[in-house]
Design brief:
Strand content: 25-35%
Shape: elongated
Low-confidence stretches: 162-172
Largest sheet: 7 strands, mixed
Bound molecules: zinc ion
Structural class: alpha+beta
Helix content: 10-25%
Mean pLDDT: 86
Number of helices: 4
Distance between the termini: 75 Å
Order of helices and strands: HEEEEEEEEEEEEHEHEEEEH
């Protein structure tokens, strides 16, 4: 039924007559009587609502020296000569953050590394590719540490070859198990009875299968590792990078600035016939924007330094406040929904004060009654 709307003015504001008719209908529907057309019977205040969001894309340009291992492929980078003069189109959507990377013409240099091919000898195995490993599993009884008091498992006695009675080792250890004759140095009663001085049993090491060495885990047995300085590439590349960065910057205006009652804001948000507009940098403001909205938005639309794109999103709704002299307890807010003018009545300041005063008085009375009741008799 939008075609039947009679309140339309060039700015889309409902006329005073239409607003009063709508308020009158509501008062009558609730059993009230009001002659709203009488002189001084009403006060009409226009308070159109605006929600305006401005997003600018602000551009920054910067240069940086870059160094990378190897010979990276830079062929995808656009080449520039003068960063400030280099043309980069603005982002199609100013809300998007975008970084463009460029390459300064003729700035690419290759530097060979002293390592030659990017490899250096492994520091763990000193370039040998293998690390030593015990060929036998350790003796479970002595763990290879006290296998023989005289030769320590080496086969060479401490005194060279002879032994004296004074230096004779204990014939039994702390647990009372008698020591055995050493199989390596022949010292009597000085060796671990389990391994007889060898420090190991007959089981070969699972890691090296008895070979006594295994491949170095650091270099996988190759004896060489990547040179850290050049990242194993043997060559480094330097160049000058130009960066053009477009970042969004947001501003917002909400009118009217004095806050509307929550009930009115919610109803208007849900039911109102909001007009929506999205403008690019050079688009004019819509014709149906209220003059006070226009005045508030216009200063916001000046170009900022570095601005390359702009998006302005507007949502606006005519809203009228009506105070009726014969109904001082209520305030009526009127706005168009998609088919008609909608009226939202809310309690006036006077009414809210009244209610608060009554509640306070009741609370006071309650406490008085309580105090009297609790007084000792
Ligand atoms: Zn190197
Ligand atoms: Zn190694
Ligand atoms: Zn081993
Ligand atoms: Zn021994
Ligand atoms: Zn042993």
């Amino acid at each position: 039924m939008a075609g039947q709307r009679t309140w339309e003015q060039p700015t889309g504001e409902p006329t005073d007559g239409d607003v009063l008719a709508a308020v009158g209908r509501l008062i009558e529907a609730r059993g009230g009587v009001a002659d709203l057309r009488a002189l001084g019977a009403v006060r009409i205040t226009r308070c159109p609502v605006l929600d305006c969001r401005v997003t600018r894309s602000l551009r920054r340009r910067r240069e940086a020296a870059v160094e990378e291992n190897g010979q990276p492929d830079l062929s995808h980078l656009p080449v520039y000569e003068d960063l400030d003069g280099h043309l980069v189109p603005p982002p199609s959507d100013p809300r998007v953050h975008r970084v463009r990377e460029l390459l300064l013409d003729g700035s690419v240099r290759r530097h060979g590394c002293f390592c030659g091919n990017g490899k250096v000898p492994c520091s763990v195995c000193a370039g040998r590719g293998r690390i030593s490993c015990e060929p036998w599993m350790r003796c479970a009884a002595c763990r290879g540490r006290e296998s023989c008091a005289e030769c320590g498992g080496s086969g060479l006695r401490r005194d060279g070859r002879t032994r004296t009675a004074a230096r004779l080792p204990r014939s039994a250890d702390a647990t009372g198990v008698p020591r055995a004759d050493c199989a390596l140095c022949d010292a009597p009663a000085s060796a671990c009875p389990d391994c007889r001085g060898r420090g190991h049993g007959r089981t070969v090491c699972a890691d090296c299968r008895g070979k006594g060495s295994q491949p170095c885990p650091d270099c996988d047995g190759s004896g060489k590792t990547d040179h850290e300085t050049c990242g194993g590439k043997g060559v480094r590349t330097t160049w000058t990078r130009g960066v053009v960065e477009d970042s969004p910057h947001h501003e917002e205006i909400r009118l009217p600035e004095e806050r509307l009652p929550l009930r009115v804001r919610r109803r208007a948000r849900r039911r109102g016939d909001w007009r929506h507009a999205v403008l690019a940098a050079d688009d004019p403001l819509p014709d149906d924007l209220a003059p006070e909205h226009r005045a508030a938005v216009e200063p916001l639309l000046e170009d900022r330094p570095g601005e390359v794109a702009r998006r302005v999103e507007l949502d606006h709704l005519p809203l009228v406040r009506v105070d009726v002299v014969t109904h001082p307890d209520q305030v009526f807010y009127v706005f168009p929904d998609p088919t008609r003018l909608r009226v939202v009545p809310v309690a006036s300041r006077r009414r809210i004060r009244q209610v608060t005063t009554v509640a306070l008085a009741a609370a006071l009375l309650c406490s008085l009654v309580l105090m009297v009741a609790l007084l000792p008799r």
